[in-house]
Amino acid sequence: MSPSLSTRGAITAGFGRWSCVRILAALVLLAAAVMKTAQLATVPVLGEGLFHARWFVFCLIEFELGFALWLLAGPFPKPTRLAVIALFSVFGLVSLYKALSGEASCGCFGAAKVDPRFTAALDAALATLAVLFPPKTVQAVPTPKKFALGLVVWALAGVPVVLAALSTRTEALSALGRVHISSNGRRTIELEPDKWTGGAIPILSHIEPAEVRRRLEEGTWTVLFFQRDCLDCQGQIRTLARQRASDTDGDIVCVELPPYGDRTALPAGPLYVRLSDQYDWYIETPALFSAVRLR
Question: How many domains does the chain have?
Answer without folding.
Answer: 2
